[in-house]
Specification:
single chain; alpha/beta; UDP-n-acetylglucosamine1-carboxyvinyl-transferase, Chain; 2 domains; 4-stranded mixed β-sheet; 12 helices; globular; binds shikimate-3-phosphate
Amino acid sequence: MSDTSSASQPLASRASGPLRGRIEVPGDKSISHRALILGLLAIGETRIENLLEGDDVLRTAAAVRALGGRADREAPGRWRVVGAGIGGLATPPDVLDFGNAGTGSRLMMGVAGSHPITTTFDGDASLRHRPMRRILDPLVRMGTVVVSEEPGGRVPLTLRGPDETIPIVYETPAPSAQIKSAVLLAGLNSPGLTTVVEREATRDHTERMMRHFGADVTVEAEGTGRRIALRGQPTLRGAPVIVPSDPSSAAFPIVAALLVPGSDVIVRNVMTNPLRTGLLATLDEMGAEIERLDSRDIGGETVADLRVRHSRLRGVVVPPERAPAMIDEYPILAVAAAFAEGETVMRGLGELRVKESDRLAAVAAGLAANGVVHRVEGDDLAVSGDGRAPRGGGLVATHLDHRIAMAFLVMGLASREPVRIDDAAMIQTSFPSFVPLMHELGAEIG
Ligand code: S3P
């Protein structure tokens, strides 16, 4: 298991003057993992620009090396991967320790579990709590043997892939891009057609990037969902990848600018893939002033510069079908809702219970600690505000969850009393430059 015994890093934020300036947040975490993984499965060289160099992604890079690929950092954000090719993976010399990274570990289970090698996966105390059955179930149907696992399908667990992986048709039991991606990645090393049916469309970076590397992937709309079919055992060729900025990281300075009076901030190059922009749609409905400037294409994804000005927000109802497009953004939306006038109801948040922490419980506890009126009813969260700054003043338990840490630091920038978090260490997993970038805008965090 990763070392979680190192001292925790408490941090606090306090009411700040207007946030001003132009910033660019790091590369998208989802795309960064996928670029490294497809680079491993390709023949030849993959050059990546603007890779997120957060701890989660660095763990995936280490796994790429352990499985027989090369992953070298040539300059900040610039990486060169040399693939082992589909079918060419080596047995890793040691346990693959994914730290805090759900995405990296689950996607790599699809990769390693479809090769005739034995691989052990482990992670930190947060990852050790997260459900892996959802990945193991389809993999077992594809022929993977689960050699050992912790009760309930948790890491540490060991997989042994079959000599020949079986292509399947799989309907995902939850709206999860990680489940979809694990099955498709396993499908790359199986003869014939692997099909994933999802009842609600989730982020489609795997499908897009597989095509970019030369795979034959077809996608058909089915109601609100999709049917994705992949022809197995293609020859993938290394391809250049430019990683756009992560909308899930951009969410924090965006909401900070909305909440701190007088703010006017531009966040550059934010990916605006419609399967990732549920938060922007919700903030628009709440009355946020967010201008999309210079919408353009970078490396096959649309990006825009977002100009965000302090805004008066009002409560809205967020429908459950929007959850997949903003699944990581509920903690920061809950913070925005605390400053809005009226009630914001977020429905269908069951998946939040199995993130880096039980995010529904962690958000509710953080709101309670800061004097925000809210209630959890089943899988729904309702947050009430009167349009003024909430009290703040709380100490928030982050439970090894980067997004809980950043969301409540943002709250403290505009609440009446400072907000403290018990541990900022996990911010390194997804947004290592969060504190310096927020300082650049004038935020008081320290
Ligand atoms: C991700 C999918 C989502 C998201 C995670 C990244 C991905 O998880 O929460 O941060 O890159 O595929 P689920 O698939 O569990 O919804």
